[in-house]
Amino acid sequence: MKKLLTALSVYFDWFYIPKIHVTDIIEIIILSYVIYHVMIWFKKTRAWTLFKGIVVLFIFVGLATLFRLNTILWIFRNTISVGIIAVIILFQPELRRALEELGRKKIFTDVLARDDKNLHLERVNNHTIDELVAASIDMGKVKTGALIVIEQDVALGEYENTGILIDAALTRQLLINIFEHNTPLHDGAVIIRDNRVLAATCYLPLTDRIDLNKALGTRHRAAVGISEVSDSMTIVVSEETGEISIAYGGTLYRNLDAIELRKKLTSLQPVIPEHRRARLRKGGKKNGKK
Ligand SMILES: Nc1ncnc2c1ncn2[C@@H]1O[C@H](COP(=O)(O)OP(=O)(O)OP(=O)(O)O)[C@@H](O)[C@H]1O
Question: Which residues surround ligand 1 with Cβ inside 6 Å?
Fold first, then answer.
């Protein structure tokens, strides 16, 4: 009987399911989310190559352990801490970018419905889009180089300060005039904020991506660079080919026609249901009266 009970208890031990608490489920969700995003980040950056290198290294160390290659294991043990520091230094730009991206993520505002008061009717209104598309197409036709950054949630103050303040209503004529060759304002980037031309001749950070087409020079690298450190959208008109591109979220969308360009710019406008739009318009009018 005793034996039977022991056998049964062993048998039921196999079916033992640990108690799962709500916190465990929350932990699983958080960890899945973090691991998924770290994997995506690995794939998007140079870290993917590093990751493959580390896997090869660990396989090598595993084999060294298996065959008791003590000298190799000794060298590995004594260099691992230096190796970790070296990796952090080498991948400092990627790590910085990943942390900046994390800081930009509006986790709570994305999950929770946003308060009407915090909603702008349009970040870039239809008139701004019309003017940007017309100016880009016109400049593309005559191969006038241009670099136009549209600011979003991330403030571009530090880049604005490198240029010359303009703060003028946005029109296609003004943009074309700014980028006209041999004029004082044509070099560098224009920054657009709240449907106005804020500054010109701004200096942007260059991307250090090595996989970018070698034919693309610093204008395109600057466009990708600013899109890596902010949520801005940047229009580039190539002086060499007249080709129009957009840099957004670290990606360069090349060779856009007027329709594609408009589509990309329109994607910056928040999708607001009509009833909320009407409410916002009313709110705006009331505020205007005050
Ligand atoms: N870091 C930067 N910030 C802002 N503007 C920049 C920056 N680097 C270059 N530019 C602009 O790009 C111009 C040089 O473009 P360059 O020919 O090197 O680039 P590109 O990508 O080949 O473009 P294009 O196809 O127009 O020749 C500069 O005169 C300047 O106006």
Answer: 145, 147, 187-189, 203-204, 206, 216-220, 222, 238-240
